[in-house]
Amino acid sequence: MCFIPSNKKARKISHTVLRFMLDIFEKEGCLTKIRSIIFYRNHLLFFFREKEITQRLIKYRSLIIILYLHRSIIFQMPDTQRELILKMLREKSVMKQDVYKNTHNNFEILKDVVKEIADDLKTEAQKIDKRITVEYRFTSDHEIELKVAGDMLVFYMHSNVFEFDKSHAMFKTGYIKQNELNSYCGIIYVYNFLADSFKYNRLQDLGYLISRVFINRENRFFLEAKPPLGYKYSSFSDVPVSSQTLKEIVYDLIAYAISFDLYTPPSQSVQEISLNEIIERVQSDKLKTGKRLGFKSQTEGTINDELAW
Fold first, then answer.
1. pTM of the full predicted structure?
2. What is the pLDDT of residues 232-245, one digit of tens each?
């Protein structure tokens, strides 16, 4: 059941907002739960079959006014579509700018942290064995590299802001339930490559995503990675991210990369080779190499799926 006003202007506004709200309901899986829609005094009243639906829509309180009346929600309509857009710009777009600013600022701090660690480890490594090299490389505003012996860590900051899928465990935390805008994050990716892949320009070699650092509008962070590193920072921090925290994370990532050894590929994967391939190998060593090439345990498959870019 749906009541639309006869006034032409009001009808135009209600149709616009109605389409907007129905898109939201479809996104949240609530569309089939609507019992009726009523227009009354510049308000749209949606009646649902399930009272729990209101909990799913609480995050839209910045766009609408939600009143719990048994199984109904009242959405206060803006006077024009322009006002609705301006409200979204004031709240959601500004929030995303804040997230990007925090992520960018922390990536700038990360650059200094990684360089400081590289300089320190380089000095100490030379005392151990002069063949061991540690180098910091700036490649772009959004990417830096850290070479530690035979490993290369690539830190890459994505320029966009992301929200988690509703099935993500973060939506079960009190921090996100309190304000779902906190779920929007910028991401810093950390990849582990073989240093020789860069040295010999082996473009077919594989790198592995070993961590993702998420930073939100309040400058809180958490980290996705394999255990034990993933357990250490598995939920949003209680305090804003700091240079000291980033330094601890980088040390943990270096230790993980060094302990993540190169496995010999299964014999069946290297039994046959053409003359052309062996010539290419001699010329530029183009055979694909990776730390786990030819191997895939269930645990590795799971984490790679979760950390897929």
1. 0.66
2. 898 999 999 999 99
